[in-house]
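Aim 2 progress update. The chain analyzed this quarter is reproduced below.
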Amino acid sequence: MILAHFLVLLLFIALGARLGGIGIAFAGGAGVLVLGLLGATPGDLPMQVIVFIMVVIYAASAMQVAGGVDYLVNLTDRLLRAHPKHLAVLAPVVTYLLTFAASTGQVSFATMPVIVEVAKENNIRPTRSLSVGGAGSLLGITASPISAAVVFLSGKLEEDGTGWTFIDLILVSIPATFLGTLVTAVIFMIWDRARGYDKLDAVPEYQRRLAAGEIAPAKHELRPVAPGARRSVIIFVIALVAVLTYSILISEKVGVITDPVMDAGQCRISVMLAAAGAILVG
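Predicted structure tokens:
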């Protein structure tokens, strides 16, 4: 039976990865239901974490509908095209920062086609930029102050009386993950250049496929941006800063607000819902 439960777990993880976005949550719920029918006993659901995931998705979805993701992708496009020689470093830093700000890798994944286009146009292998960029996006989740991972872990650390608070966690996770992403990207860039592994024209199979028309040549296409796209990004960033600032001010170690009206979790939920509403109204 344990093997059957494990196979069901793998099945719904694969299904969630295929659906992407909020479909991951849908697959997770369906997986718990199937496991329950097979006799497994679900543990306590972290309801506040689940609700927070939902409200962040609402805000990120509102920003996407308003064109904010397209706006961010175009900014990424300009940055990478301005400094193509440092693509192997800039791409991971961009995916890290986008995920850090949005608390979801879906925003950073939208930049992957841009990374590939810039690499092709400048005779650069995109594999390293994409692989380290994917890792940078994952690390961004573990550092984002509004991500479910940080919210859940900080809550568990405080409940277990470890002495670690939300502030302690982000003071360690943010510099550690950012520097880890940056240093890894720099090391691989230097290593690839030293071996002559960074050029596309050194890949015979790619050249053959390009000549045979199996691979389309790179095209520079900026995404059309809606009038309120930039405003939606600003609103989202303001919400992120507000959540982080409030969480710091009410923490026991800072203690600027000693009798807060809302705890950090309630603030996160309220602010992100308000941000989603402001983006829709705008």
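The mean pLDDT is 84. Residues 120 and 263 are 49 Å apart (CA to CA). These observations will guide the mutagenesis experiments scheduled for the next reporting period.
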